Amino acid sequence: MQVEWTPEGRSPIRLDQDPRWRLLRLGGHGAPDTQLQSLSTPARNERLVLHAVAQPRIITLTCRIHGATPAAFQANRATLAGAFAPWPHNGSRARPGVLTVTLPDGGLRALRALPREGLAWPSGSQHGDATVDTLVLEAPDPFWYDPVPLTGQTSLGDPGNLRFNATDELAFPAGFGSELPSASVTVTNPGGVRSFPVFTVPGPALNPAFRHGATGHLVAFNLTVPQGLTLEVTHGAQPDASALAPTATLIDDLGGRTNILAALRPGARFWALAPGDNTVVFTADQAPDLPTVGHRFFRRHVAI
Q1: 151-168: per-residue pLDDT in tens?
Q2: Domain-ending residue, one of 142, 167, 194
Q3: Are the beta carbons of 124 and 132 closer than 8 angstroms?
């Protein structure tokens, strides 16, 4: 099993197989309770996915550091310590990084973490020109994730594919009220933990909306997405730290980004993809070119 640590802004280092040191053990604790429960509400008879509050995961890396001479040993130890050192010129603020594990089948698992308390590099137990040291990392998001996100897309169909009634509820098979350019797609989350998706809608589109079928949670905008711009909606923090909270952005063809969270309709509620199949509904008041809606999300895991 290959194990790498990549400090933010620096190159990765191999922990498990290096002539200067060897990883003896990767351990830890703090895996959260992800038990799923069922809940019925007065307004709906549906199954809501409830998750316990996720506690930080603590990871311990026990390494044996070698050196042909006392000087080489000290240099090797300093090199490894430097990979977990705090940000330079910034007091003791810890430098985050990504711990990546390559599984025997070639699959990857990643965990974004930071050395606990900046880095209290321990004295270890030294024996001649070798020592055994233990590093402690803390992952605020305790779930491992696949570094390559899952992606997909679907095209908005002609008006009338889906209908909504006067209270903006999806009506099956038909309701009264407006008929909208729309699409319904099943997005399968193969992980064991819910994951916040990212959606993209190219313009032109008027008042796009994204609904989670099982919960009814809706994110809708009073917004015109012009031709040549793309709306990107991130429903929550991403495990790779590309977003730390929900965002809504218009992106131009030069990569410029404009925050448009203020265009959210009142009562909007961001949502996550539960493990398994999720029905997702996209609508727009007008979408003359019937654009393709893209989605991506990270597969997340309770353990390696």
Answers
A1: 999 887 654 444 444 444
A2: 142
A3: yes
